[in-house]
Amino acid sequence: MRTSCFRGRAARAVEGLDLSTVSRGDSGRVRDSAFYSLAPLALGLLSLLTPSAEAAERFPGGRLPAIDTPASAYGNDVRPGPRGQPNADDLAGIAERQRQQGHPATALRLAQRVLAYAPDNPQAIQTRISSLANLGAHRRADQLREQYRPDWPQATQERFHADVATAAIRDGTQEQARLERRHRYATSNLELVKSLETLNANLERFPAASEARQRTRVDRLIVLRQLNRFDAVIADYRALQRDSIVVPSYAKGAVGDAYLARRQPEVAAELYRNAIDANPQAPLSVRTGYYYALIESENYAAAGEVLAQMDIDTPIWRSRPNATASPVPNWERSEVDRLRVLDATYRHHEAAALEQARGLYRQAPRNTDVIDGLATAQRSRGWYEQAQATAELAAAYAPGDQATRLNIAENAQDLENFPRWQHTIEPLAAQFPTDSAIRRNRLEWQDRQHFSLEGQGSFGRSHGGNAVNGSQDGEYQLRLNSPWSEGGYRAYVEQSYRWGDYDEGTERHDREGGGVERQWLRRHWWAGLSGEHFSHDLGLELGWSQWLDDRWQYQLRTQTQSPETPLRAERDDLDGRLYQAQLTWRQNESREATLTLGALDISDGNLRSDAAADLTQRIQASAHHQTRLIGSLSAEHNSQSEADYYNPEDTRSMGLALEHDWLTWRRYNHAFTQNLTLGAASEWERGYGSAAGYDVTYGHTWQLTRTWSIHYGVGWGQHDYEGERERRWLGQFGFEGVL
């Protein structure tokens, strides 16, 4: 699952960047967590309003003299006033200097003392209003400004309006986070939308070159990003660059989020890195965004270093207020731990991811983010029923949670519960149209409503014998599928063609056919008719397949005009009736075994029975490489050994193959993978004894778009047939996609 970056879990686990994912591998990959950690942005905005400075020498620790003390207690520069109070103008001036030095709380208390005995002092009134604004009490400050209408310079008036707008952003961001925690998504953006309207009005009000207007343009980046208007963020950022306005580091994380959402991870990574370099204590959302940008850039080594540093810098507990107080939990630690689970999944370390997810669940069994992460880890191992049960638990705790609902949709997709998939993903997509993991999952649902096309073919050339394939041979199959109906039905038409050059001449066989199939709840049946030119030698194919649970699957199949019939038997107007049963055991994504039993009843009286077993074990996996070892055993018996086609009485084979896939390049929905297979076997044929067999294949797989892919390759092999050593070259090609 390569939950895109955004897997819809910032808080959820920043498709899950599916992300979701991620997400989402989402997966999209599950990767939207950078988009939902809102508290750090609020803190960044608040820091603009409350500048820090060293403790004032005049009032150590912010302690003021007692109210009834003489003027000299405030300093030698404060004159006595009437009735023994300090001079109002002197004390008001000190209050303003305290505010400008970064002590708005001290300034506010001094100004209020002045106003207690000099209520009309203009400096004290202005300092009181400005101090309230610096402390974030902008509503009260605005009320006092409207009441007193102080005679401020134009630049001060503009700064005040900008401060009010910044505070509204902070409050709107916190309100958005609060409502989303309560799953009240429909109203979560209302305050931010109002703050955006205020910013837009200020842009019209402030002069073009004023500091307040530049700050408003920067603040607008924050609001647009919180509203997921990523194109507008990028447009505004580029306009600021054209105007040579330096964007402060606290806003670069928001711009990085926008570039990441618009699939420009290299640009996003640079912005995140600049923000972190400027502030090593940058919010976690910026650091997780940097991690996802590196993942999206396929730079897994650097992403691992970033995650390791986050792991070091994010302790379980925050510092205690004092030695006797209980330790304060660091809630950011939970997000880092969940990100470590996703990171293991991205690198195809599914067992490690599941173990980590289980550990988090034991520590926080009612945390829905943790439960969703556990369900994702189970799904990555192919345990869809377990994942569904886990997701249902999260839904019981938080039925309206965005990440949980996406998890339910993805599980329904894997379990082929198509009505539930539709009824879950459609409302989600309507409610969260900008979430990349949700959007991708909905597109996958809509793919079922389109025609699809698939095809594959091969061409071979043999030397040293032509008992099986002839000196040259080839085949291809094409299939066109109709859209799926709501009940899980679809129709299909197909064509197949086989040919081979033998000593006695060229043999060709082509068939056209059609049928219907149904797929639902991990059950699959199909029925089709095919014949030469739809009329001659009509044959029936019936099949049934079912998963009994997460590990066991069986399949039954029969064909009355089987393409397994040898070409030279077809030349003699012989036909074969196939009966086949297959049992699959799948422990997890790394280990699988299959047993196949079959019988081909050829109309000349020959019964060809065979049995085959294979075991696949993944022996290596990383983000871009996977290696599998496949062991196989097979045996075949023919009841009549005398025939015009290759028909040994008994054959046996025991082989070992090594497969390696190298994901050489990937860019979201586009990827290039190299595939290499090396195989060797000990083969035995009655009357001729044992011989070694070898096969080598090399190919490429291109993911052209989200829905279209092609693959091709070449192969070489050596095998003995009837005592003759045959060397064969093979070329292959295939494609599939949605129309």
From TrEMBL:
Q: Which GO terms describe its molecular function?
A: poly-beta-1,6-N-acetyl-D-glucosamine transmembrane transporter activity
**Which of UniProt's keywords are assigned here?**
TPR repeat
NADP keyword on record: no
Mind telling me which Gene3D superfamilies this protein's record contains? Answer: Tetratricopeptide repeat domain
Q: Which PROSITE patterns match?
A: TPR
Q: What range(s) does the PgaA membrane beta barrel domain occupy? A: 465-728
Q: List every stretch annotated Disordered.
A: 60-89, 455-474
Xref: Pfam families: PgaA_barrel (PF21197)
Entry superkingdom: Bacteria
Q: Where are the TPR repeats?
A: 249-282
The answer to whether keyword Ribonucleoprotein applies is no
NCBIfam families noted in UniProt: PGA_TPR_OMP
Q: What is this protein called?
A: Poly-beta-1,6 N-acetyl-D-glucosamine export porin PgaA
What's the source species for this entry?
Salinicola socius
